[in-house]
Structure formats: C-alpha cells, structure tokens
Structure to design on (588 residues):
C-alpha cells in the first residue's frame, strides 16, 4: 500500500477539529487536479470511532493509536508521522494551519528534510503543477510558491481557506493501521493540563453592534473617543489583540482566533488592519464597516463599507452624524 | 541560565509597501525598520528570566548592516552581548536555510534556552522556531505566554485557540517560540543606552559558521518563492473618501437606511 496525498487530521479527546475537514476539501481538490489518491491520518488514543467517521470522500484513513500520541506533543506527532512517510512515501502532506499544526508541521518538514509552505490561502494550477498562495506582510501582499522535486511536499492551509460544507462525501474509504513502531518514539515534553484563560465577563457573541478598536488608536487616552462612538451606536466595545495586550481594554474583549468569535449585525473596525487572526473572529458579521487610513489594508477586502481616512477626523464626524440621524 | 534570543528586523508596521519590478520583493531602500513584534516579547521574557535566576542573554540576528540598530536597542534594554550574521552577500528567504544559519550560530554557544518570536511580520512563515528545534535536537513548544523554572527544566503556559491555554513541561536545554503580549515590554534607560556602547556585537561570516556558500543558496531550495502581488479583492466594499464630515453623514445614512443596523 502507498499513499499519494495525506491529510493529517487534528483531534483532541476523540473530538475532530472541524478545520480538518477544510484540509480534506483542499485534498479532494488536489486529488482531482493531480489524479492522485487521498488518504487521511489520525493520531491519538481511542480514535476508532473518529477514524470511521472520517472514511467519507477519501480512499482510506490511516490510524496511529497509542499512549505516546494520546496528548498531542510535537515530538510524538513528528516521530510517528516520519515513520509513516518513510513507509508510504506520500507526495503531499496537507494540514489545516491550526495552532497545533503551527507547533509541529515545520519541525516535521525539517525532520524529513523537505519543505513546508505554511498558512496558504489556496492553490491554483499552472499546467500540471499546483502553485500555492500564501500571504506575506500581514495579508497586504500575496506570494506564489511552487515545489521542485517529488519528495513529500508539505502544505498547510489557513483556517477558513476552504469550506468544510463543500466536502464531497461520494466514496467511502477503509480504516488501516499505519503500523507505527511506538516503542522507538521518545517524547521529551510533558503536557500537564488544559484550562480556560480569563473569565469571560462579557459575551460579545450576543452583541447586536460592535465597535472594534485596533492599534491605529495609538494611545490609551484615545480610547475615550471609541467609548463615545460605541455609546452613540449603543454598541459593545471590542479590540484587536495588540490593544488588549497593551491593557487598553480587558482581554475578554479581544476578537479573533485567540479571543472571541462574534457575529453582530454591525461590526465597525476602526484602525484595524485585518490580519487573518482577527478576521476569523468577525468575518461572519452582518454589516462590516472599516475605517483605516491605508487604502490597501486587508480589512477593506471583507468590508461592506470602507472609509479611507484618518480615524481621528472621521470618528468625531461620525459620532456627530449618528447623533443627528438616530 | 544562558539564553539566546533570535531577533529579526522587519519593516515598521505601518510601512507603505511597493513591490519591485521583478515582483519578487518590496523596495527596501525607502523603508524604516524595527524589531519584529514577537521577538521583542521573546527578549523581554529572556531578560525577566535572567533577572530572576541569573545568567546571560545573548541576542542573535541575521540581516544586513542595518540590523545593528535593532541589536543596539536590545543591548540597551539589558541584553549582555549579540551575534550578528551579516548576510549582505547572501540574502535568503527560505526559512529552512535561514534556520540552518541560525542553528550554526546557536550551536557554538550551547545555550540552556533558545527563544524565538512566534512569527516574523514580513514573511509570516511562523516556522523558524520549530525548524531550529529540530536542527538543534531540542524539545520545543510554541505560542508561549509564560515561562517558569521547574524541577530541572521549565514549565510554560502556551496558548490554544479561543481563549484556552495549556501547561507544558520541558527539560533543558529547550527552545520556545514566544507569542506577542506575554509581558509588558520595558523601555531602554539612559544608563542602559550608555552601557550598550561597550557591549560586544560579534559579526559572524559563513566561514565562522562552518557553512559553504552553496549550502545557503536559495536557488538550491526545493521551495520556490515565485512572485509576489497585491491580492485581488474578493468582495467589493463601497469606499468613501474625502471630507470627513461629508463621509460621516453618508456613512451614517447608509447604516441607518440601507444596512438598517440601527
Ligand atoms: C497565533 C496568533 C494569534 C493571534 N490572535 C489574534 C486575535 O485573536 N485577535 C487579533 O486581533 N489578532 C490576533 N493576532 C495578531 C494579528 O496577527 C495582528 O497582529 C493583529 O490583529 C493586528 O492588530 P491591528 O489590526 O490592531 O494592528 P495593525 O496591524 O498594526 O493595524 C493598525 C491599522 O491601523 C491603521 N491606522 C493607523 N493609524 C490610523 C489612523 N490615524 N486612522 C486610521 N487608521 C489608522 C493602519 O493603517 C493599520 O491598518 C494573532 C497572531 C498570531 C500569530
Ligand atoms: N533573520 C533572522 N534573524 C534572527 N532571527 C530570525 C530571523 N528570521 C527569523 N528569526 C526568528 O524566527 C522567528 C520566526 O520567524 P519566521 O519563521 O520567519 O516567521 C522570528 O520571530 C525570529 O525570532
């Protein structure tokens, strides 16, 4: 048996991370475009049911089941996957670019002496070969990457780059044990516990309207202006990560991949550039408005209304205009 | 504890970027530069560990001559000394080649702990830390927010998605990738700036690192950085520009009568 395209699944306590399905969708696309088979690999403990569930739309699901990969560690995952790659010789190894994948995918590539293109927003075909696209400069510029050589090429896709609803569940695959020799594997790190951070005092996920502040605000003193804007709109105040990091707003008001996910009917982003880690937390909002002085700020790509201008001029004017009209 | 902090100099965050004619990079000559954000937090974490447990913090930066300015900022904040891999002659954008160079410099120092930033804000690979760990044979963990010493090793708090965290224990020596926001950053003091003038910035050449030119040549890489471009807009925002008062009135009207959000 051998493998062409291998998607590495992500699970914790037997629960699949939904982003895995996005990587499977990407894999199905590549499988069609390149005429290659698609397999999925699951590592963990007590993952039998999960492996069965994953048997749709793929040729097979490989499992590597053992204590040593019971809790995720970079050591355990890399060593196990390295053995599997040596046996199965996949041409592509695909991931969804989650925090877990950030932690081990490039170590794995280094251990395999191969390359990884991380955090891709998609791929396009150039004749027979795929060109992978990833963002640089925090989403302001895109870059095309290609691989030369056949060895295992590693690619991770940005969360949200593919839609899990597009999963083609046509075929049903089989589960196969990957036959990893776990006794050879040494895990040096020890996972102690998993816990939730700051107590969430505000639940922004229920907010009707949100005014969200980014680093463009420059100084904590300027938060007053944002408070005023939020007040006239009867909105909750939220922020991008740097604003919370600096303590200008409590951590539980941070929107994004490491903060809250929100879906208000109005999301007004002020002085926020629109890095992907912020966007994943708010892109499903109803009406998105962005105020930013940089016309190329990525936030404008997902906005419905955009104001290109200095927030210190635009916001006071907007406060006045809203007061008048409400 | 001897700690090495990897620091990359990147264009300042608000830079207006212009793509070069051959579409391979941005014009660098008009840019201003600063220490990569998460690297600043890595440096802060290292300085705090040193202050608590003693030892030495060594800064490691690869880049052209201009990175010395950023190195000096680190020295002024309390870093003991610095290593500078001057790459005026062999710029590479392959994270694996980069890591090979950094690893060669780190090996010569045999540190107890290596800290990197989580990701560089220019190329945004987020790969160098874990690659270095593999090249150096060190256990690692990334997206680290807090570090404390624990029996013989260290215990760290790392970030997971959506406001969750995890505690992980590692033996030393180890490598950690540090996330932004993990501590309040310090400013350099006048005294620190004065003292920095006497601190050593050791320049390292390929020969010093025991590497040959073809080992760090991008064109031998199996990963090709083909071209860069401004992304196509996927959604058409209605854009307002001009007099703030007029724009504000228009926007307020749209929000009320078109989007009906209040
Ligand atoms: C693993 C990981 C997790 C992360 N999690 C999150 C997260 O949960 N949430 C999050 O937000 N980020 C997160 N980030 C950080 C993210 O990558 C960005 O760094 C961050 O979102 C940038 O915040 P910002 O847009 O406020 O700042 P910047 O990117 O610095 O943008 C500031 C913007 O303000 C504009 N501006 C400046 N002055 C003015 C003015 N006078 N008028 C108008 N506009 C102005 C600028 O043009 C710029 O676009 C994470 C990063 C990583 C690596
Ligand atoms: N040229 C460099 N010099 C020193 N450190 C670097 C360099 N490039 C990357 N790093 C380190 O590796 C981290 C991650 O970079 P990257 O993988 O490029 O996103 C950075 O935050 C730095 O700590």
């Amino acid at each position: 048996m051998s493998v062409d395209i291998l998607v590495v699944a992500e699970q914790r306590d037997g629960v699949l991370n939904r982003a895995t399905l996005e990587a499977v969708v990407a894999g199905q696309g590549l499988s069609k475009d390149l005429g290659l088979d698609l397999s999925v690999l699951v590592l963990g403990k007590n993952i039998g049911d999960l492996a069965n569930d994953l048997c749709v739309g793929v040729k097979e699901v490989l499992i590597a089941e053992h204590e040593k990969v019971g809790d995720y560690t970079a050591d355990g995952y890399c060593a196990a996957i390295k053995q599997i790659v040596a046996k199965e010789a996949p041409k592509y190894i695909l991931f969804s670019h989650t925090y877990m994948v950030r932690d081990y995918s490039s170590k794995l590539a280094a251990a395999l002496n191969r390359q990884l293109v991380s955090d891709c927003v998609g791929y396009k075909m150039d004749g027979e070969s795929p060109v992978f696209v990833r963002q640089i400069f925090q989403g302001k510029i895109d870059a095309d990457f290609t691989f030369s050589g056949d060895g295992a090429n590693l690619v991770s896709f940005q969360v949200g780059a593919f839609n899990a609803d597009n999963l083609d569940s046509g075929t049903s695959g089989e589960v196969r044990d990957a036959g990893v020799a776990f006794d050879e594997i040494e895990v040096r790190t020890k996972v102690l516990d998993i816990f939730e951070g700051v107590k969430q005092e505000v639940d922004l996920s229920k907010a009707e309207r949100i005014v969200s502040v980014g680093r463009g605000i420059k100084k904590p003193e300027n938060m007053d202006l944002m408070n005023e804007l939020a007040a006239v709109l009867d909105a909750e105040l939220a922020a991008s990560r740097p604003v919370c990091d600096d303590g200008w707003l409590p951590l539980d008001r941070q929107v994004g991949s490491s903060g809250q996910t929100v879906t208000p009917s109005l999301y007004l982003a002020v002085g926020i550039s629109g890095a992907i880690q912020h966007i994943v937390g708010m892109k499903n909002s109803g009406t998105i408005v962005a105020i930013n002085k940089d016309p190329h700020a990525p936030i404008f790509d997902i906005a419905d209304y955009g104001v290109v201008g200095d927030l210190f001029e635009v916001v006071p004017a907007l406060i006045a205009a809203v007061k008048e009209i409400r | 504890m001897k700690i090495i902090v990897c620091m990359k100099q990147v264009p300042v965050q608000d830079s207006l970027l212009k793509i070069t004619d051959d579409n391979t990079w941005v014009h660098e000559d008009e840019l201003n530069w600063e220490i990569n954000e998460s690297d600043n937090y890595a440096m802060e974490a290292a300085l705090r560990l040193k202050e608590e447990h003693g030892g030495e913090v060594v800064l490691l930066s690869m880049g052209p001559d201009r990175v010395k300015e950023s190195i000096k900022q680190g020295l002024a904040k309390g870093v003991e000394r610095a290593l500078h891999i001057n790459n005026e002659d062999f710029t590479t954008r392959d994270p694996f080649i980069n890591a090979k160079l950094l690893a060669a410099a780190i090996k010569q120092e045999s540190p107890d702990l290596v800290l990197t930033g989580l990701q560089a804000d220019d190329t945004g690979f987020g790969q160098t830390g874990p690659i270095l760990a593999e090249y150096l044979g060190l256990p690692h963990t990334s997206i680290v927010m807090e570090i404390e010493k624990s029996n013989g090793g260290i215990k760290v708090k790392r970030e997971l998605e959506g406001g969750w965290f995890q505690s992980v224990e590692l033996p030393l020596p180890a490598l950690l990738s540090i996330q932004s926001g993990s501590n309040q950053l310090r400013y350099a003091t006048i005294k620190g700036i004065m003292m920095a003038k006497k601190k050593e910035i050791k320049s390292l050449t390929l020969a010093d690192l025991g590497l040959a030119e073809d080992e760090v040549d991008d064109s031998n890489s199996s990963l090709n950085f083909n071209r860069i471009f401004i992304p196509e807009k996927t959604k058409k925002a209605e854009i307002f520009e001009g007099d703030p008062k007029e724009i504000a009135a228009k926007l307020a009207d749209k929000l009320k009568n078109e989007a009906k959000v209040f």
Remarks:
- The CA atoms of residues 4 and 109 of chain B lie 8 Å apart.
- The domain at 2-220 of chain B is CATH 3.40.50.620 (Rossmann fold).
